[in-house]
Amino acid sequence: MSAVTGERQKRAQAGVPATAEDPRWAAVVARDRGADGAFYYSVRTTGVYCRPSCGARRPRMENVGFYATTAAAEAAGFRACKRCQPAGPSTDSRQAELVARVVRILEESENTPTLEALATETGVSPYHLHRVFKSRIGLTPAAYARAHRAQRMRAELDRLQSVTDAIFEAGYGSSSRFYEQSQDRLGMTPGQFRAGGAGAEIRFAVGESYMGALLVACSAVGVCAISLGDDPDQLVRELQDRFPQARMIGADAQFERLIARVVGQIEEPTRAFADGELPLDVRGTAFQQRVWQALREIPIGETRSYAKLAAEIGRPGGARAVARACAANSLAVAIPCHRVIRGDGALSGYRWGVERKRMLLEREGALSSDAENAGS
What we know:
By secondary structure, this protein is an alpha/beta fold.
């Protein structure tokens, strides 16, 4: 008789149910959504069966049984729980479907629907819709609609000759409504944006960190570039290429303090920038902004794989799209795309060099010896 079998017999003689040793019971106790679909549990006293993640009151251990399928549970005489609806799609599937439907409505509507209108059309409460959408996307429905409309506006500015035509093509009900928000959406007026920043002022300065040269640039809205490199002149040239018509202004004493804060964050990454401490001029598609917001929520000292980050924002299977969004990030450290690694722990593409990515993660204590070896 094995030691394991002997221990089980002792526990059985002591009156401890076998369920206590079953790993499926631990999943039920934890209400583990990751176990949904892997098995179902029944409750003898109520006659129902549930998903492992069911939020109903936890049953007594001795009343619980396990089944591999819903058919097996029903064949044993149990009925589906009305709360977790184990016979239907999972909670994750239902939420993903809800979010996808709301995204379609927002992107296809000429005028942004109210939260109440969205809730009515999708058959859920406004509170539930707002909570699920924000948890999945990282933005509220209204913020997503604004980001999508701004993305359309940037595309139309490139396509059309008339700024007024571009405003209406992008879905703004009036030109005054757009101009009220243009600074927030573009960081400059639409004419300036289309003309490579013509007439706009961008302040910049170059400093030094343990990783080499560091450039920080600000528009009227906030920090629009944080770049790392070996050649300070090259960093400045890249900024000029991005905004060829903007007026570049060198650093003053106030701007030097901003540089010092960024360098301090790189040198001693003990905390993230507090909200409002480093206002950002973030320009990207709605999807890119979802990814960038998720990056800012990764705690210092932790990493995510591209696949896991994609799942967290409600895009399972979107690892490549997440990787492209990370590559499009122009704000090193402030939007910490260096905290995303491959699924096998190896370090891959980083806009400012994989070695700098390694150095940042080592500084933050997020790079385990296994991940470091995988990236060698």
